[in-house]
Design a protein that fits this description.
The complex is a heterodimer of chains A (113) and B (115). With 113 residues, chain A is mostly beta strands. Chain A has no helices and 11 strands. Chain A has strands at 4-7, 10-13, 18-25, 31-37, 44-50, 53-57, 64-70, 73-79, 87-94, 103-104, 108-112. In chain A, the strands form 2 sheets. In chain A, strands 2, 4, 5, 6, 9, 10 and 11 form a 7-stranded mixed sheet that branches. Chain A has a 4-stranded antiparallel sheet with strand order 1-3-8-7, with no helix packed on it. Chain A is globular. In chain B, strands 2, 5, 6, 10, 11 and 12 form a 6-stranded mixed sheet that branches. Chain B is globular and about 45 Å long. Helices cover 0% and strands 51% of the residues of chain B. Classes of the chains: A mainly beta (113), B mainly beta (115). At the A-B interface, β5, β9 and β10 of A face β5, β6, β10 and β11 of B.
Chain lengths: 113, 115
């Protein structure tokens, strides 16, 4: 595997379900990011981790819970989501974080029913 | 306020035509970085270029070229002799020295290249 991978690629869940999105980077980077991309809206930065420490949390509802067990893996735990949370969730990584190029995964397309 | 403006929502061209995508940014920082990404229908954002605020040289990479003009706060992107595979959404983004981790993205321009 190379670059940034994300699983699953597609996910359909009910509002009462609990699911997790997984991101793995094979680039030796130290910073990882979660973005949300909704239709007709610019990409929204959700969370940033640098060396496994959360450094940014952009007023994201608590029904989204990130986890970064090591610098190669990033999870986004989902529970009691709303239909408006349906979107493409993109993971990215960068070497150290500060103002560097971010490399993106293919995304998880989430549909909340 | 929107920091990156991509005024063109959609552009449709016939193969082999040139297409220029506009990007206008807004920042008070003297040190900043500008990026272009391509998002094909598969969804992944593909990095195209990163330019720092102190380097105003234009850049060419194959059929792609970028025109950075600080005087007008613009970082425009041109695809020469477009091909069907260039069909995608293109995003311009800004990273400022005052916000270490954040990339501010424009709304994107959808380019459709017809055969």
């Amino acid at each position: 595997e190379t670059g940034v991978t994300q699983t699953p690629r597609h996910l359909v869940m009910g509002m009462t379900n609990k699911k997790s999105l997984k991101c793995e980077q094979h680039l030796g980077h130290n910073a990882m990011y979660w973005y949300k991309q909704s239709a007709k809206k610019p990409l929204e930065l959700m969370f940033v981790y640098s060396l496994e420490e959360r450094v940014e949390n952009n007023s994201v509802p608590s029904r989204f819970s990130p986890e970064c067990p090591n610098s190669s893996h990033l999870f986004l735990h989902l529970h009691t989501l709303q239909p408006e949370d349906s979107a493409l969730y993109l993971c990215a990584s960068s070497p150290r974080g500060r103002r560097e190029t971010q490399y993106f995964g293919p995304g998880t397309r989430l549909l909340v029913l | 306020a929107q920091k990156v403006t991509q005024a063109q929502t959609e552009i449709s061209v016939v193969e082999k035509e040139d297409v220029t995508l506009d990007c206008v940014y807004e920042t008070r920082d003297t040190t900043y970085y500008l990026f272009w990404y391509k998002q094909p229908p598969s969804g992944e954002l593909v990095f195209l270029i990163r330019r720092n605020s102190f380097d105003e040289q234009n850049e060419i990479s194959g059929r792609y070229s970028w025109n950075f003009q600080k005087s007008t706060s613009s970082f425009n992107f041109t695809i020469t002799a477009s091909q069907v595979v260039d069909s995608a959404v293109y995003f311009c983004a800004l990273s400022e020295a005052s916000d270490d981790y954040k990339l501010s993205f424009g709304a994107g321009t959808t380019v459709t290249v017809r055969a």
